[in-house]
Amino acid sequence: MNSKELLLRAMHNESVERIPWVPFVGCHAGNLIGVTAEEYFRNSDNIIRGAIKAFEEYKPDGLPVTFDLQVEAEAIGCKLVYSDKNPPSVATHPLQEGKSIEDLKIPSETDGRFPIVLKAAKEICKLLGDKIAVYGLVIGPFTLALHLKGTDIFYEMMDSPERVYELMRFCQKVSVNSAKMYIDAGVDVVAIVDPMTSQISPTSFEEFVSPYLTPVFDYIRERGKVCSLFVCGNATKNIESMCKSKPDNISIDENVDLAYAKEICQRYGVSLGGNIKLTLTMLFGTPLDNIREAENLMEIGGKKGYILSPGCDIPYDTPPENIKAITSAVHGEVGEFMRQDIKNSLEEIDVVLPDYKNAKKVIIDVITLDSGSCAPCQYAVEAVKSAVEGIEDKVEWNEYKIKEKESIIRMIKLRVPNIPTICIDGEPVYISVIPSVDELRRSIETAIKRKGI
Question: What is the mean pLDDT of residues 32-37?
């Protein structure tokens, strides 16, 4: 049984002789081949070179073509902001700018960056497809709807649900068509990546997400391929709803307890992937930290229906030695790493928190992975920006990205359990949930009154 067969069996919730390993390499591949993230995402040859390099370095059982959730949004009309070390992020929302759903077009093979991505997909499948399982990553309907509509979608879910249903039907068609293009290019697994679903309740998930996800999964299976649902953030409350939407597999990040998710998934016959910590372990840990975490997760996940992987796209600057250390744990070859005695890079860092009680302004700390690369984090930051408009003289706010070492220490000191989290005067208030702008504004105004500002 080769790597590809091993992974596909695990994806189908079967027992395997060794737990398969899928490093979700996106912009990190740019680092591997010495180009910026923007140069990587805009060039099919760079995407191909990055995938081949990741295959050679990390001995995976599966790899994504790339990890870019903005391809569909850009092709439909969202403007993007590109970065040297992050995937592009959405900067504009067409349905907030006067367009209607009727004005939007389902992207084809010739729109936006699809020619770049599909050319890369075909070549990667040709070069690696007989050895490993190749993933095509498609943005999920709900996250795409948020990109097109902006945070107003949360109001409409309450006040005008029919308008949200209409938008979700359009986004479902986009997801199906993107899946079709990837399958035609030769991929083995289509992962529907819908990070914003962690921000809604199970009731909202079953009303606004499941009816539009399940047909996408049905289509992927009809084409003889494996389907996965990938969610970021604290999706604990929605794990069961995710399973009910009938994917073959779900993938989670570090915000969800793996043992809990495993129990729910096995109940529904769904396989599970995740959830190595992206920053604390992979980006800032030592090779030994990565080995220990991989071994712990493999112990929990077991050899039936579990795939070891990071919780999301591997950060650009992640040391290759850390990823190779995980590979060594997967293949039972940890000797050279176990002999290393590398001091944890966080031990020497300290952060002094503000004197929140006596500060002359209300202080808002937004703890994120990175609003430039994480959709829930982006919309948490946008909510804060909107909520403080007109009261900037009374409020100070900052985003702290846990891709930076100091921000991890700050997160620990603030007792923040999950990301994104919005803290007000040192207290975590909105934990892995995006409040409406009105609700957040009221919370800030209450803090202002409490301080007598």
Answer: 98
Give the H or E element holding residue 366.
strand 362-368
Give 153: exposed, middle or buried? Use CB within 10 Å, 0-12, 13-18, 19+: buried
Torsion angle of the four alpha carbons 266, 179, 233, 12, in this order, in degrees rounded to the nearest 10 = 20
The structure tokens listed for 357 are 């009680």
Q: Name the token pair of 79.
A: 């403007």
CA–CA distance, 341 with 434 (Å, rounded to integer): 41
Residue 350, domain member (yes or no): no
Residue with the two structure tokens 């790597």: 3
Say yes or no: 169 and 36 in one domain: yes
Could you give the CA distance from residue 82 to residue 38 in angstroms, rounded to a whole number?
Answer: 6
Range of the structural domain that residue 428 is part of: 362-451
Token couple for 321: 């030695």
Q: Are 414 and 353 in contact (CB under 8 A)?
A: yes
The number of residues in the chain equals 453
CB 15 within 8 A of CB 73: no
Sheet architecture: strand order including 427-431: 395-401, 362-368, 421-424, 427-431
pTM, two decimals, is 0.86
- pLDDT-derived band at 342, boundaries 50, 70, 90: very low
DSSP character string of 103-162: G-----TTSTTHHHHHHHHHHHHHHHTTTSEEEEEEE-HHHHHHHHH-THHHHHHHH-HH
How much is the average pLDDT of 124-142? 98
Q: Write the CATH number for 397.
A: 3.40.30.10
- Count structural domains, the chain: 2
Do 44 and 126 lie in one domain? The reply is yes
Tell me whether strands 226-230 and 395-401 are parallel, antiparallel or unpaired: unpaired
Measured in Å, how far apart are the chain's first and last C-alpha atoms? Answer: 68
